[in-house]
Amino acid sequence: MSVPVNAGTTSIIGWKHSVFGKLDLPDASSLIGSVVPGALDHAGVVPEDVDGIFVGVYNNGFSTQGFEAGLVSMAVPALAEVPATRLENACATGSAALYAALDFIESGRGKIALVVGAEKMTGVTSARAGEILLSGCYGPEESSVESGFAGVFAGIASAYADRYGDPSDTLARIAAKNHHNGVTNPYAQIRKDLGFEFCSTVSERNPMVAPPLRRTDCSLISDGAVALVVAAPDVARSAARRVGFRARAHANDFMALSKRDPLEFAGVRRAWSAAIEQAGINTMDLDLLETHDCFTIAELLQYEAFGLAERGHGRRALEEGLVAADGKLPVNRSGGLKAKGHPIGATGVSMHAIAAMQVTGDAGDMQLPAVELAGVFNMGGSAVANYASILEAW
């Protein structure tokens, strides 16, 4: 094993991940309470050790209860006096909370921080959920699109078809791959291998949501929560496990699709390239990549932004087996947002937790062999807020 270059950096030392899906827990407070004690216990710390709390909850209408940072005190009374802050950055809300915690520690303001991402999405109707999610796009130009956020990404998929040819079969292969991977993920909302035939065929069970996107091309409405404990290097050094950030980068792009080429995913490319350069590696040096497949067209465009294929040829990453679970660079071994689920505030925290499980050999039935370096890419909106991390155990 290579000597980790991140030894001596802020690290993840513990986590707790709920199952994703339609859960009986009624609200964000109860979801937060379901994971925080377990994460602290896993990290081997007590509430009195925590110097700061960073909460990721999107909300924007899923609940009338705001001020979610204050909910931690109600869910875990022992943390009532710890400074807590809530962050929101669309579907990258969880990563925003995590990066704020890392900045907090690296600035010297604290030694241990708690990060918790949570979302209760199933308490509203599907139609209302669609309206709420559209708040993550540029309202003056995009809020009237039919079929909600699926309609926004359907427009991107249609533009891809016009420029490069119909990607429908490729999108179905991405969906089938991720559902196949999700079978062995104990946290996944859907643990069923749907297969290419089902994913590629429009049917009563797989209707067209927003042409050309079928139901299997769209991530799920989910409830869930994930908590991480991150610590300064002198604390992490004595922890039972420690996963450092060999690199991390955050890049933004114009919010309105009209201000940019929607197929370029330029912000994705900038964030990813910055993280790879900082880590001193190439993308193919990674052993795993967990990426943001909110819609299958997003994963396809990310292949191209990451340099796994030339523009317009992302399908080759699938056709050559590169991104399969047994490929040279497994992508979304967890099942991704497609099978695992997508509780907005929890997603970015979940992706980092899953990667941490892999590099520490704690991923159970979804464990890949010899994972030393794991990549995570989480994005908010239509590739507006882009977070790229390279994780390594030390």
Features:
single chain, 394 residues, alpha/beta, Peroxisomal Thiolase, Chain A, domain 1, two-stranded antiparallel ribbon, 17% strand
Using the coordinates above, name the CATH class of the largest domain.
Alpha Beta
Largest sheet: 9 strands, mixed
Q: What order do the SSEs take from the amino end to the carboxyl end, as H and E? A: EHEHEHEHHHHHEEEHEHEHHHHEE
Across the major sheet, the strand order is 3-2-4-7-1-8-11-10-9
Q: Could you tell me how far the N terminus lies from the C terminus, measured between alpha carbons in angstroms?
A: 10 Å
Shape: globular
Share of helix among residues? 25-40%
CATH topology grouping of the largest domain = Peroxisomal Thiolase, Chain A, domain 1
C-alpha Rg (nearest Å): 19 Å
Average residue pLDDT? 96
Structural class: alpha/beta
Low-pLDDT runs = 1-5
Task: Say how many strands there are.
Answer: 11
Note the quaternary state here: single chain
| Number of discrete helical segments | 14
* Overall CATH architecture of the largest domain: 3-Layer(aba) Sandwich
Q: Give the amount of beta strand, in percent.
A: 15-25%
Count of all domains: 2
In CATH, what is the homologous superfamily of the largest domain?
Thiolase/Chalcone synthase
